[in-house]
Structures are given as C-alpha cells and as structure tokens.
Amino acid sequence: KAGVTQTPRYLIKTRGQQVTLSCSPISGHRSVSWYQQTPGQGLQFLFEYFSETQRNKGNFPGRFSGRQFSNSRSEMNVSTLELGDSALYLCASSFTGWRGHNEQFFGPGTRLTVL
Amino acid sequence: ELKVEQNPLFLSMQEGKNYTIYCNYSTTSDRLYWYRQDPGKSLESLFVLLSNGAVKQEGRLMASLDTKARLSTLHITAAVHDLSATYFCAVDFFNAGGTSYGKLTFGQGTILTVHP
C-alpha cells in the first residue's frame, strides 16, 4: 500500500508570494490533517479535512487555507508569505479522523523556505 | 489549554544503557501515540496506546500508558546508535462531542543521541 505523498518536497519563495502544497493520502483514508513544524514552535496542527469539508482548524491566521478534493487529495495554500512561515509542512492521513480511527500516517513533508 | 510535556528534552546515552522518556498530558485522553523522527525526515509511527495499562514493545523500545496519571513512558533498553533520533508523543483530545477531528497535540520532542 502506497504511503502518504507530498509535493513538492522542497520550495523556496520570497516574502509576499503565495504557495500551494499538495498531499495525497493513503488509499482509503478520507481524513487529511496538516501540521507545521518549526524549531521554535514544534509541531502545530493547522487544519483537518474530511469529505471535502474542513472539520477542525488550529490557531493560524487566515493566510493559511486548504481544501480537499473528492478523491481525498488535499492542498494547503499560504498567501502573503512571511519569513516565519519557513517550516516543514507535514500532511497526515487517517481512516476517518474520528475517535478510534485517528491513527495518523505522515507524509515526507514539504520543506518551505521563505527568503 | 491542552498541554503535552515530554522530559527530558535532550538525552545523551551510552550504548548498552537503559533510559526512560516521560510524556505527561493535561486532559483526559484514552489514546496516545509515539513517533520517531530522523533529521530532515518525516514522522514514523512507533506505538499506538489505546487504553489504560496498555504496554507495547518493539525491539529495544517499550511504551506504556497510565491514563489515570495522564502519563506515558517510552523505555529504551540497551540503547544502540541506530536509536538516535527525536521521539515525540502525541495525544488525541476529545471534547464532550467525542472527537478532535484529526488533531493530534504533540509534545516538544526528546532528542536522543546514543554514543558508542
């Protein structure tokens, strides 16, 4: 069974630009969660999608958004990039995200550098 | 505020020694996860602990969960260099409605270095 895939793996952008990251979950998994990992803040939850609906959202500004498609693939977008957005962005998929089915499997991550 | 705290944050061990990483969490939860992360890599699932008293072992690693104490431990036996990595615990928090909808709250991570 193929694991979670994320594209691109590395990205360099400049301040003020926007970026779109993509995540394909494990086949059959319908819940996709996104996390930001930085040395200072650690691993922080961004949002979760299930059946094309955002069900949960972390404490991030509105510049961070996402969506999910009918095939469960998900994208996240960051607009008006700031230096502090430099991070490893991890996508995780689980069967449903519901209690009892929330074991999450992580993709390789996208390393975003904002200059 | 929901908190997950690990200690120690840094652990330098000699090969062959034993040690324990602790994970405390602040709110009732009945499931806890341990992950391993190698430098520049993603998170690899190690253990899923689903109930009070759960104990799981894989090789030189053993994890346990005490939901009453809100404590999980990751015990390392006879450490080897290949275990050098960062270890995270993560918790599902469930509200009165019964779900956290895909959110895991992570500890700060414990950076483990095993020396020859």
Description:
The complex is a heterodimer of chains A (115) and B (116). By secondary structure, chain A is an all-beta fold. Helix content of chain A is 0%, strand content 52%. Chain A has no helices and eleven strands. Chain A has strands spanning 5-7, 10-13, 19-24, 31-38, 42-50, 53-57, 64-68, 74-78, 87-94, 105-106, 110-114. In chain A, strands 2, 4, 5, 6, 9, 10 and 11 form a seven-stranded mixed β-sheet that branches. In chain A, strands 1-3-8-7 form a four-stranded antiparallel β-sheet, with no helix packed on it. In chain A, a hairpin with a 5-residue loop joins β7 (64-68) and β8. Chain A is globular, with a radius of gyration of 13 Å. Chain B has 116 residues and is mainly beta. Helices cover 0% and strands 53% of the residues of chain B. Chain B is built from no helices and eleven strands. The relative contact order of chain B is 0.32. The mean pLDDT of chain B is 91. At the A-B interface, β4, β5, β9 and β10 of A face β5, β9 and β10 of B.
Class computed from helices, strands and strand pairing of chain A: mainly beta
The termini of chain B sit apart by 41 Å
Largest sheet of chain A: 7 strands, mixed
Largest sheet geometry of chain B: 6 strands, mixed
Show unreliable segments of chain B. Answer: none
The low-confidence runs of chain A, each spanning 5 or more residues with pLDDT under 50, are none
In sequence order, what are the helices and strands of chain B, one letter per element?
Answer: EEEEEEEEEEE
Sheet/helix structural class of chain B: mainly beta
Mean pLDDT of chain B: 91
Strand content of the residues of chain A, in percent? over 45%
What percent of residues of chain A adopt helix (DSSP H or I)?
A: under 10%
How many strand elements of chain B? 11
